[in-house]
């Protein structure tokens, strides 16, 4: 039984980091004419109403996207991402937040393909409805991890695989590594982007060690913390681990993370990080 609903968290600081990285990778893939596959293993509902009961109850977006989307000195690294947010909110009031599938829908080209999977009985129909009229997209209510076996390699031999589980179950920390291994075996040139929360630092250290032990190379880690690590309940930071990142991504994130951290965390607590778990 799945209890996690992303609508409580949409647009929070972790989404800002994840969707910044996602949009930069997509923009890099778009620089070559050749089509590619965007595979979103844990897609969520696609669109979130920020004035809805769920988002209002936690107010997480107020310390996330609400702090940045109307700043007048937005760095160029955020242009594509914020462009999508503005597109969804043409009146200038922040009412909707785009999930990862919608960000991909806006940024992908006519020749590219989207494969989106979501298991939740309430979120899947919302996702399916969003994409009914998009011929590029296929939505399925099925296990996202299995997609790394069944959908790779894509016929186009280019692709971004976003893996964004809720980490509701402790086994997710191991499952992500196993499924990346499976996916990489089939599609070693793909870009794999894995989101993670920092709740207990030990779990993330273990996950990174397990990734390193797979023998996969070119693994970049990007992290934004809003508070120092803690053994209390709650997420203090989040990160993205990117395998085969586009060559510009490391520098782009080094450029933009200090600005993001300053605007998202006025108190100045926490940290940012861009470093290689395994280099070239
Ligand atoms: N990627 C989305 C975004 O950035 O907008 C958010 C996804 S949310 C963090 C995780 C989603 O995974 C939830 O909607 C949950 O229902 C779904 N989920 C959980 N286990 C799954 C599984 N094994 N396969 C596919 N989806 C799953």
TrEMBL record:
<keyword id="KW-0698">rRNA processing</keyword>
<dbReference type="GO" id="GO:0003723">
    <property type="term" value="F:RNA binding"/>
</dbReference>
<dbReference type="Pfam" id="PF04378">
    <property type="entry name" value="RsmJ"/>
</dbReference>
<protein>
    <recommendedName>
        <fullName>Ribosomal RNA large subunit methyltransferase J</fullName>
        <ecNumber>2.1.1.266</ecNumber>
    </recommendedName>
</protein>
<feature type="active site" description="Proton acceptor">
    <location>
        <position position="164"/>
    </location>
</feature>
<feature type="binding site">
    <location>
        <begin position="143"/>
        <end position="144"/>
    </location>
    <ligand>
        <name>S-adenosyl-L-methionine</name>
    </ligand>
</feature>
<feature type="binding site">
    <location>
        <position position="118"/>
    </location>
    <ligand>
        <name>S-adenosyl-L-methionine</name>
    </ligand>
</feature>
<dbReference type="GO" id="GO:0005829">
    <property type="term" value="C:cytosol"/>
</dbReference>
<dbReference type="InterPro" id="IPR002052">
    <property type="entry name" value="DNA_methylase_N6_adenine_CS"/>
</dbReference>
<comment type="function">
    <text>Specifically methylates the adenine in position 2030 of 23S rRNA.</text>
</comment>
<comment type="similarity">
    <text>Belongs to the RlmJ family.</text>
</comment>
<keyword id="KW-0694">RNA-binding</keyword>
<feature type="site" description="Interaction with substrate rRNA">
    <location>
        <position position="4"/>
    </location>
</feature>
<keyword id="KW-0808">Transferase</keyword>
<feature type="binding site">
    <location>
        <position position="164"/>
    </location>
    <ligand>
        <name>S-adenosyl-L-methionine</name>
    </ligand>
</feature>
<dbReference type="InterPro" id="IPR007473">
    <property type="entry name" value="RlmJ"/>
</dbReference>
<feature type="binding site">
    <location>
        <position position="42"/>
    </location>
    <ligand>
        <name>S-adenosyl-L-methionine</name>
    </ligand>
</feature>
<keyword id="KW-0489">Methyltransferase</keyword>
<feature type="binding site">
    <location>
        <position position="100"/>
    </location>
    <ligand>
        <name>S-adenosyl-L-methionine</name>
    </ligand>
</feature>
<dbReference type="GO" id="GO:0070475">
    <property type="term" value="P:rRNA base methylation"/>
</dbReference>
<feature type="binding site">
    <location>
        <position position="19"/>
    </location>
    <ligand>
        <name>S-adenosyl-L-methionine</name>
    </ligand>
</feature>
<dbReference type="GO" id="GO:0036307">
    <property type="term" value="F:23S rRNA (adenine(2030)-N(6))-methyltransferase activity"/>
</dbReference>
<dbReference type="InterPro" id="IPR029063">
    <property type="entry name" value="SAM-dependent_MTases_sf"/>
</dbReference>
<comment type="subunit">
    <text>Monomer.</text>
</comment>
<keyword id="KW-0949">S-adenosyl-L-methionine</keyword>
């Amino acid at each position: 039984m799945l209890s996690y609903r992303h609508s409580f968290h949409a647009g929070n600081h972790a989404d800002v980091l994840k969707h910044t990285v996602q949009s930069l990778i997509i923009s890099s893939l778009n620089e070559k004419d050749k089509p590619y596959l965007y595979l979103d293993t844990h897609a969520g509902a696609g669109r979130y109403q920020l004035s809805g009961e769920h988002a209002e109850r936690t107010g997480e977006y107020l310390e996330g996207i609400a702090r940045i989307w109307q700043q007048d000195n937005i760095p160029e690294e955020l242009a594509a991402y914020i462009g999508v947010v503005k597109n969804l909110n043409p009146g200038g009031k922040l009412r909707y937040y785009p999930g990862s599938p919608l960000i991909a829908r806006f940024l992908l080209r006519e020749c590219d393909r989207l494969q989106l999977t979501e298991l939740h009985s309430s979120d899947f129909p919302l996702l399916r409805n969003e994409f009914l009229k998009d011929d590029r997209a296929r939505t399925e209510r099925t296990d996202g991890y299995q997609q790394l076996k069944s959908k790779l390699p894509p016929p186009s031999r280019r692709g971004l695989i976003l893996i964004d589980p809720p980490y509701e179950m402790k086994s997710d920390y191991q499952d992500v590594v196993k499924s990346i291994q499976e996916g990489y075996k089939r599609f070693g040139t793909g870009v794999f982007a894995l989101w993670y929360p920092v709740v207990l630092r030990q779990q993330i250290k273990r996950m990174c060690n397990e990734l390193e032990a797979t023998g996969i190379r070119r693994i970049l880690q990007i992290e934004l913390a809003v508070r120092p690590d803690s053994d209390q309940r709650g997420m203090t930071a989040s990160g993205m681990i990117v395998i085969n990142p586009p060559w510009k991504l490391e520098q782009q994130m080094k450029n933009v993370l200090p600005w993001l951290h300053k605007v998202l965390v006025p108190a100045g607590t926490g940290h940012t990080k861009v470093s290689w778990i395994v280099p070239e």
